[in-house]
Design goal:
The protein is α+β, with helices and mostly antiparallel strands. 46% of the residues lie in helices and 16% in strands. It has a domain at 7-122: Arc Repressor Mutant, subunit A (Orthogonal Bundle). The longest helix has 17 residues, at 103-119.
């Protein structure tokens, strides 16, 4: 199957697939393939990952339906070009509610993966911004905030091919009563 266009949203239907996409390396590759179709060599160069590692990640992402073959590019030999199967992926809540673990465990796993990425950032890297704040918002203002955040991320969701890939992690929740 050769992929022609992206679905808007795809569902992550099982815990194994969630574990595959929660890996930081695979998540970075998937983000690149959402932005544009790429070969393994292009991904290796853009993300500074050894090509053998890229092939490993591509195979897992393809097996779980996150990416698909988008065509071939001739660079002396025919190289496979990959593309994400959707512009975004959402965890199927029914799966997580019925399976071992919970939706919050899945969310925490994503935050843990991001925390591990932060640990790998050089202490003097001025691109790192970590904020934690507490605010009070009623339901109407929470909905407005989420919409503004979605709009902001969409505005910056263009690919600057000459710029480093940035990771944005957001956790927005009511603080449990103590």
């Amino acid at each position: 199957m050769i992929l022609n266009e992206l679905d808007r949203v795809a569902s992550i239907g099982d815990l194994e697939a969630l574990r595959v996409v929660a890996d930081s390396g695979r998540h970075r590759i998937l983000a690149e393939l959402i932005a544009s179709a790429c070969t393994a060599a292009e991904l290796a160069a853009r993300l500074s990952i050894p090509r053998t590692r890229v092939y490993y990640h591509l195979e897992l992402l393809e097996r779980h339906g996150f990416i698909a073959l988008a065509g071939y590019r001739d660079a002396g030999t025919a190289e496979r070009v990959y593309r994400a199967t959707a512009a975004s992926f959402r965890v199927d809540r029914r799966l997580l509610g019925a399976a071992e673990g919970s939706l919050n465990d899945a969310r925490a796993q994503l935050l843990d993966a991001a925390a591990e990425d932060v640990r790998g950032v050089a202490p003097d890297d001025d691109s790192l911004l970590v904020l934690r704040t507490f605010v009070r918002m009623n339901a109407r203002r929470r909905a407005a905030f989420r919409k503004e955040l979605d709009d902001l991320l969409a505005r910056y969701d263009t690919s600057d091919s000459d710029a480093p890939q940035m990771e944005i992690v957001t956790a927005f929740f009511a603080v449990p009563a103590q």
